[in-house]
Amino acid sequence: MAAKVSSTSPKFTRDLPESRRQQLIEATARCLARDGLAGTSVRHVAAEAGVSPGLVRHHFEGMQDLVAETYRATGKQIAALLDEALAAAGPSAEARLHAFIETSFKPPLLDADLLAVWLAFWSLTRTDPQIHAIHAKVYAGYRRLLEEMIAALAREHGIAIETRQSALALTALLDGLWLEHCLDPKTFSAAEAAAIAHRWVDGLKKGS
To answer: How far is Cα 103 from Cα 147, in angstroms, rounded to an integer?
Structure first.
C-alpha cells in the first residue's frame, strides 16, 4: 500500500540535490501509475519532471535504482500516514487497530494510482534483489507494528493471542481486501472492506 500520486509536474530551478531527487522520485511514481513498469524509462521520467535524462542519471544510477528509491520513499509515506492515524487514536490498542484499518481503506491510501505503483514494485520482488530487500524491510515494519498492537490488545483484555500468526493473518486480510477493491471497486465498497477487517479484530478480541 502507498500515498496518493500527485498529478502536478515539479518545476526545477536551483533546488538542493535532495529536493531534486525527491522530485524525480515523485515523477517516477506518476509514470508508474500512468504507464506501468514497462512504460517507464529514464526518458519518460525526465519528460515528466521537465528535465534532461542526463540530470536523472546524475542523481540515480538508472531505472533500477530510481524504482528502488521510489519504493523506499512510498513505504515511508505510508508509514507516516499510519503513524499519524495511530497517534490520533490515543493509547488504546483496540482503538489503534481500528484506526489502522480505517486509514487503510480511505484516501490517500485507497487509490487506484497507488495500486498501479504498488503492483510495479511487487512485480520486481522475485527478480530484483534490491527490491526484494526493500519489500522485506517495508513489510517487516508493517507486521511488527501490527504484532505490537495485537500484543497490547491481548494485555488490555487479559487474553492469550498468538501475535505473530495473528499479524500475518491481518496483513493478508488487509492486503487482499485493499487489492481487490482497487482492482474493481464495484465488487464491494471501502466501508464494507473496513467492516470485514473490524469484525476480524472484534473476533480476535473475543478469542475466536
So the answer is: 18
Q: Are residues 86 and 187 in the same domain?
A: yes
- Structural domains in the chain (count): 2
| Cβ pair 25, 112 in contact under 8 A | no
User: What's 24's domain CATH number?
Assistant: 1.10.10.60
Structural domain contains residue 65 = no
The enclosing domain of 108 has a CATH number of: 1.10.357.10
Query: Distance of CA 102 to CAs 61, 105, 194, Å?
Result: 38, 5, 6
CA atoms of 161 and 81, how far apart (whole Å): 27
Number of Cβ within a 10 Å radius of residue 163: 18
CA torsion angle for 140, 123, 113, 64 (degrees, to 10)? 90
Percent of the chain topping pLDDT 70:
92
pLDDT band at 1 (very low <50, low <70, confident <90, very high): very low
For 47-96, what is each residue's pLDDT tens digit? 999 999 999 999 999 899 999 999 999 999 999 999 999 999 999 999 99
For residue 110 the three cell numbers come to 485507497
Q: What's the domain range around 33?
A: 7-60
Task: State how far Cα 103 lies from the chain centre.
Answer: 11
Give the dihedral sign, CA 35/39/42/48: negative
Distant-in-sequence, close-in-space partners of 7: CB < 8 Å, separation ≥ 6: 30
Indicate whether 130 and 164 sit together in one domain. Answer: yes
